Amino acid sequence: MPFPEDPRPTTFSLLIVPGITVAKWSRMWSERLPEVDLEVVPAEAAQAATLLADQVDAGLARLPVDQDTFHAIPLYTEATVVVVPKDHMLAAADEVTVAELADETLLRPLDDVLDWTGGSDAPVTVAADRPATTAAAVEWVAAGVGVLVVPQSLARLYHRRDLTYRVVTDAPTSSVGLVWARDRYTDLVEEMIGIVRGRTANTTRGRAQPPAAPTERSRRTDARRGGSSPRKSAPRRGR
What we know:
The chain has helices at about 25-30, 50-55, 135-140, 150-155, 185-195, 215-225; strands at about 10-15, 35-40, 60-65, 70-80, 80-85, 95, 105, 125, 145-150, 165-170, 175-180. With about 240 residues, the chain is an alpha/beta fold. The chain has 2 domains: about 10-75 and about 175-195, D-Maltodextrin-Binding Protein, domain 2, CATH 3.40.190.10; about 80-170, 3-Layer(aba) Sandwich (D-Maltodextrin-Binding Protein, domain 2). Strand 1, helix 1 (about 25-30) and strand 2 form a beta-alpha-beta unit. The radius of gyration is 26 Å and the shape is elongated. Belongs to the LysR transcriptional regulatory family. Pfam families: LysR_substrate.
């Protein structure tokens, strides 16, 4: 007689968008669930919603997301920086304000995650041509076409030796969260929630842990109490 198939999944797919690192959480997953492979799925930010809807189990993505379709747990907020050539006048400061970006030419790649054009307090000139990607926009900065405002992790990801970046203290920021489709919640999603929230393996909301083996001391205690049989509740009276 054949054995029934094991219904437990052996893989958990986790989407990540550019700039997000997952090494720490991946290591914790491997330690806690060695029997389930963590499949990291890199994707562009614009593709995240489509993939999260029905193709991956969860993702580390930029917020906000459609709350009718997804659940999200905010994890952290990134500083926003301006990427400039090393010899640019803004590079002389430790940090800058939005007002100091006035009169700069702002590059807005098609995969821009901030969707910011300067606002009334910073009359920047937005370049008419839009680079296809943030990586391409960084190349344009190096060529002297303009400056680029992005989350700090993207400035690090696409770093060039001839460029630098400075924090823009009052610019809009980008938050990152754990996201999953409302109709795709599973025990493994709960495991990932526990990992990113810092729960220990024994936390009650994680996987059920096997009961600890009784010690000699606990046996003696049970014997004094008349055994370890569960106490029966008195029957409830009907109303």
